[in-house]
Amino acid sequence: MGHYPELELDVLLHKEPTRTQVGGANVTFESLIPRIRKSS
What we know:
The protein has 40 residues and is of the alpha+beta class.
């Protein structure tokens, strides 16, 4: 997975879905583990 600081790795893997705005568009960030669980 490369070299990520512990906090960034935790966000990438475990953070709950988060809504934000990017360039005026609403975007939802979903981390890997919750996304995989949701699709199973």
